[in-house]
Amino acid sequence: MPNHTEHLIALILAPVVLISACGLLCLTFYNRMAVLTARIRSFNAERFELLEKINQEPPPQPTPTRALHPLRERLRGLEAQTEAILYRARLIRRTLVCLVSCIIGMLLCSLTLGMGLIIPHLDYAALTFFTLGMIAMLLAMITALMELQLSLKPVSLEQDFFDRVTPLSENPIHEHA
User: Fold this and answer.
1) pTM for the whole thing?
2) 111: which of 70, 77, 86, 141 is 20 to 30 A away, CA to CA?
3) 8 A C-beta contact, residue 136 and residue 107
4) Which of 8, 6, 3, 2 shows the shortest CA–CA distance to 115?
5) pLDDT > 90: what percent of the chain?
6) Would you kindly state where each structural domain of the chain is located, as residue ranges?
7) SS3 state at 119
């Protein structure tokens, strides 16, 4: 009997390792979500300031080298970056939902394994909860990969804006090189 109990305790602890791993991943993704949220708020503040400036000043006349109004172009760029970052934040939220679902699945797995001492044949329920938890973890990693794939998009949008507004010949940084 003690050998069976030790084996059962080892089985119950296996999901706990996954719970700890998911907890660390949750911490990482909550931090990423906080950074993205702060970035969206700063973009929105800058968008508001740009709108005030645009409404206060008449736009300059277009010239052959500068056909677009830089403030309006920056506003469009900020809108595109905000949209891209908001999409990433939604992916992170999905990742967190999947990770928390994995934790719930692992907790239910541990509980049913422990209750298996009292109620026979709960092995199948434990296996079901473990499988569902692992599927949730897999989905979390897929959405994390999707978010990672998009992580440079806002920077690319900003670089494109600067390339359009400041042609290479007018850029003071490149004049000293």
Assistant:
1) 0.75
2) 141
3) no
4) 8
5) 43
6) 2-57+67-166
7) coil
Mean pLDDT in residue range 127-132: 93
What is the Cα–Cα distance from 105 to 111, expressed in whole angstroms? 10
Q: Output the CA angle 27-155-158, nearest 5 degrees.
A: 140
Q: How far is CA 79 from CA 5, 40, 53, in A?
A: 59, 10, 16
- CA-to-CA separations, 147 to 46, 103, 106, 137, in angstroms, rounded: 24, 21, 25, 15
Q: Quick: pLDDT tens for 56-108.
A: 876 566 655 554 577 888 888 888 889 989 999 999 999 999 999 999 999 99
Length of the chain: 177
Sequence-distant (≥ 6) Cβ neighbours of residue 63 within 8 angstroms: none
- Mean residue pLDDT of the chain comes to 83
Tokens (6 digits) for 55: 């409404």
Residue bearing the bigger pLDDT, 10 or 38: 38
